[in-house]
């Protein structure tokens, strides 16, 4: 069996589960951003394709890889893969559902606390000798406890539920929106109230995004959504940057329509220095906290994800059906 990997060989070595398929398969590494011609040159006859979670796998490439049986995202996201083309070719597309839920939930709460406690501005104040000035300013303005916030979760999959579980321990009031309402038993278990999307925006002190990117959700955090949010509210995104209209969020921050944003994901990736959310004016720059899309890349998460990938490769080698199939096969 031949396995082609679009990703970092050092990472795969570090998180290797040491399964027998890794010894018997022919394994080839190419860069994460390799184009279709490079893929075909190195692995047109590959049986399995492992890809970075933000890699693109086009329908044309899928149709030209005649031996391909499975495409596996290294992470949870798979929106860069043409899943419909793969389905038509009978090729499984798999992800690592739930493997990094706890890690991403922790990142979401880190960003919430950084926003509420002025993490960026506070750090800068201490480094520049303005500690007391900053402390006095925040006492005058007031600091909201996370436990006193109503948090609206947009999307309630594995990561949304992991976030809800942690926020419940803080004492937060929780509401959520998803395209399909969850069972009453699940709502009761997590203390969740279902709300329509714009109602959630209107009542939440923090809106936290946990939705997958679909044609319906792409750009859903737009001018209309942001106009419903409180001026004192924060937006947190640990899901995908494609959920957010960058220019609408930039305008809302500049105009003071929302209090700030915590962003682990920004579209497009890799994020460049001229991104409209990176080039905010100094008047509102400190109200945004960025992290470099590291919410789901903890050591524990990667160990779980890589084990699933190689176990699925073993299943393919044995002619069995893999787990975590996302394209309906």
UniProtKB/TrEMBL annotation:
Pfam families membership: 2-Hacid_dh, 2-Hacid_dh_C
GO cellular component: cytosol
UniProt keywords, alphabetically: NAD, Oxidoreductase
Domain D-isomer specific 2-hydroxyacid dehydrogenase NAD-binding: 110-295
GO MF annotation terms: glyoxylate reductase (NADPH) activity; hydroxypyruvate reductase [NAD(P)H] activity; NAD binding
Residue span, D-isomer specific 2-hydroxyacid dehydrogenase catalytic domain: 26-327
Domain of life from the UniProt record: Bacteria
UniProt similarity note: Belongs to the D-isomer specific 2-hydroxyacid dehydrogenase family.
Protein name per its UniProtKB record: 2-hydroxyacid dehydrogenase
Organism listed in the record: Candidatus Scatomonas pullistercoris
């Amino acid at each position: 069996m031949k396995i082609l990997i679009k990703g970092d060989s050092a990472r795969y070595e570090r998180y290797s589960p040491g399964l027998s398929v890794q010894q018997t398969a022919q394994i080839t590494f190419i860069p994460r951003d390799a184009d279709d011609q490079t893929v075909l040159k190195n692995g047109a006859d590959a049986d399995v394709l492992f890809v970075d979670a933000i890699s693109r796998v086009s329908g044309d490439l899928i149709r030209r890889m005649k031996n391909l049986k499975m495409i596996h995202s290294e992470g949870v996201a798979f929106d860069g893969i043409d899943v419909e083309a793969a389905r038509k070719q009978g090729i499984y597309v798999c992800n690592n559902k739930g493997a990094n839920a706890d890690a991403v939930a922790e990142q979401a709460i880190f960003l919430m606390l950084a926003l509420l406690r002025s993490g960026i501005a506070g750090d800068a104040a201490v480094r520049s000798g303005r500690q007391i000035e900053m402390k006095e300013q925040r006492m005058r303005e007031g600091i909201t406890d996370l436990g006193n916030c109503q948090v609206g979760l947009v999307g309630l999959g594995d990561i949304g539920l992991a976030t809800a579980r942690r926020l419940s321990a803080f004492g937060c009031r929780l509401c959520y929106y998803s395209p399909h309402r969850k069972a009453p038993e699940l709502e009761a278990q997590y203390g969740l109230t279902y709300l329509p999307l714009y109602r959630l925006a209107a009542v939440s002190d923090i809106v936290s995004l946990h939705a997958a990117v679909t044609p319906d959700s792409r750009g859903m955090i737009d001018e209309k959504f942001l106009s419903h949010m409180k001026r004192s509210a924060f937006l947190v995104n640990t899901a995908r940057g494609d959920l957010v209209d960058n220019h609408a969020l930039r305008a809302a921050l500049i105009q003071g329509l929302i209090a700030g944003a915590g962003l682990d994901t920004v579209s497009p990736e890799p994020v460049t220095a001229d991104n409209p959310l990176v080039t905010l004016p100094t008047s509102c720059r400190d109200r945004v906290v960025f992290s470099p899309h590291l919410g789901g890349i903890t050591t524990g998460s990667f160990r779980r994800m890589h084990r699933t990938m190689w176990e699925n490769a073993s299943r393919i080698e044995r002619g069995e059906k893999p787990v975590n199939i996302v394209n309906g096969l």
